[in-house]
Amino acid sequence: LPYVERILIPLDETATLEKTPFALVTFDPTIFIDVLKFTPQNIIYVNSITLETKRKLWIENEVQRYGGFAAEVARIYQLQPALEHLGDKSKGTLRVGYAFAPKKLEEMSERNFLKNSTNYTYIPIDLRCPLNREVDIVIQKVQQYRSFWDEETWKVIEKNVQALESLGKILIDPFSTLEIVMNRLVFQEKYAHAFASEHFTTKLAETNARLGTNIQVRVPKMLVINPNVQKPADVAAEATNIGLRFPAIFKIKDSSSSANSHKMAIAVSLSALEEVEASTFFKDSEHIIQELIPHDQEIHKIYAIGMDVRDKVNGSLPNITKEVLHGKDWIIVDSQKPFADQLVYEKKVPGKKHELVMPIIQLIADVTVNLFSVSIFGIDIIVDSLTGDYYLVDLNYFPGFKGIPDFVPLMERHISSIYNAKKGSQAN
Questions:
Q1: pLDDT interval class at 15 (50, 70, 90)
Q2: N or C: which end of the chain has fewer CB within 10 A?
Q3: What is the pLDDT of residues 103-144, one digit of tens each?
Q4: 4-18, 178-192, 320-334 — most confident range
Q5: Across the chain, what does the average pLDDT equal?
Q6: Angle formed by the axes of helices 184-196 and 198-211, to 10°?
C-alpha cells in the first residue's frame, strides 16, 4: 500500500504506546479499519473538495462506526489544531466549526486565524456530511465550492444546513442569504431600491445636515444585455433611456459560460457602444454594461465585522479618457493582467485623496446588514471625482481582510458575541 501515508502521533508528550491513545493521520482510514483491522481511537484524515462526495460520505461513515474522535484536514497547518482538539484540549473553549474553500483557508492562514487559543478551538467541517463534530458555532463560505459540485451535492448541503439549524447549532450568518450576496445583479438592484427609499434618504439627509456635508449614495447604473434578443442599436437606445453615463465597462455576465470571461471592454462614449456590442467577445454572450465612475485611482475597501467597520484604500483604475485608451474610443482589456500594462496612465500610490465620512459609511453598512442579514462582509466604495458622491460598486461576504491588523481579535470578539446572543435567545 505505498500510496497510503500514515503517521502515528502521541497526543501527550509523556505517552507510551501501551498507555496512551495515538492519532492516526492518513489519506484513507478505511484501509486501516477494513483491510488491516487497525482501529485507533483517534483518526485524522485528509479531505478535499475534489474528493468525490459519495467517497467522502463513505469514509466519514466508516470512521464514525468505530467511535472515538475524528477530524479532517485539507492543509498541513490545520493538523496541529486538530491534534489539540483530539487530545481533549478543547474543553472549556468555544468550539468553532468552519467550512472554507482552499483559497479562503490560505487567506485565513496568512491572517493567523483558525489557530487554537485559550478561549477558542477551530474545527474543520464538511457540510456534505451530517455534522459529526462537537462544535458550538459554525462559520462557512462554501458557496465558493459551487463550481466543484453538482446540484445533487448542493441539495445535500442545504439539507445538512437545515439539520444544523433544527438541532439548535448556531450559524454566524444565515446560509440562504449568502446566495443573494454572491449574485451581483440581485444585490445591486436591492441596494438601488434601498438607497432610494424614504427611510434611507431621510437618514442620509439628517446625517448630511448634522455634519455640514452634501453627499449622495448610489450604485452605478447598469444594463444586463442578452445579444440574442437585443441588437446593438436597441442597447444604445436603452442606455440613453436610463441615462447611463460614459465611460462604461462591459463584462461577461456568467464567468462559467465563456472562455473569455476575464475579457472586459471599456468605452468612452455612447457612439462606441454599438461597436463593442458587435465585437467577438460580446456578440454571443450575455453581459453587463456598467457606468465607470471617475474616482482618481482610489477604491475604499470597507470591512465590517459585527459592529466594527474599517476603511482601507487600494489602488484602482484611472479616470478613463480617450488618451488612456491609446487614443481609441473603446478597448478590450484582460482583468487577469495589470491594467497599468494595458492602459496609458501614470500609476499613483493610493493615499486617501478622498477621506470618507464614516457616519455615512456606517449608514451603508447598516443597510447591508438589514438587506442581507450578514455580519461579516466587505463593500467597495468609490468617490465620484466630479461630484463627491459615494458609489457602492461591490459586495463580498467574508472577504480576505488583507491589511486589517486587528482582524483576529475582531473576529473572535464577534464570534463570542453571536454565540452569547443566540444562546441567550434560545434559553428564553
A1: very low
A2: C
A3: 888 889 899 999 888 899 999 999 988 888 888 999 998 877
A4: 320-334
A5: 84
A6: 70
Q: What is the DSSP string of 78-126?
A: GHHHHHHHHTTTTTTSEEEEEE--HHHHHHHHHTT-S---SSEEEEE--
Is the distance from CB of 312 to CB of 266 less than 8 angstroms?
no
Can you read off the three cell numbers belonging to residue 189? 438592484
Sign of CA pseudo-dihedral 141, 142, 148, 150: negative
Mean pLDDT of 198-206: 97
pLDDT digits (tens, 9 = 90+) for 67-83: 667 788 888 888 888 87
Query: What pLDDT shows up at residue 38?
Result: 62
Would you say residue 256 has pLDDT above 60?
Answer: no
Q: Which of 104, 34, 106, 40 is nearest to 69 (CA)?
A: 40
Place of cell 484611472: 318
For strands 263-267 and 308-315, give the pairing. Answer: unpaired
In the sheet with 330-334, reading across from the earlier edge strand, the strands are 222-225, 287-291, 248-252, 263-267, 330-334
In angstroms, the CA 92 to CA 121 distance is: 10
b/e burial code for range 307-337 (CB count within 10 A of at least 16 → b): ebbbebbeebbbebeeebbeeebbbbbeeee
CA nearest neighbour of 298 among 235, 391, 205, 213: 391
162 φ/ψ angles, rounded to the nearest 5 degrees = -60, -40
77 secondary structure, DSSP code: G
Question: Which residue in this structure is represented by grid cell 466604495?
Answer: 381
Residue 285's identity, in one-letter code, is: S
Distance CA(46)–CA(3), nearest Å, equals 13
Q: Using the structure block, give the residue that is written with the C-alpha cell 459592529.
A: 307
Angstrom distance (rounded) from CA 119 to CA 412: 9
Calpha distance 32→45 (Å, rounded): 12
Q: Cα dist. 23→4, 20, 319, 359, 399 in Å?
A: 15, 10, 58, 52, 34
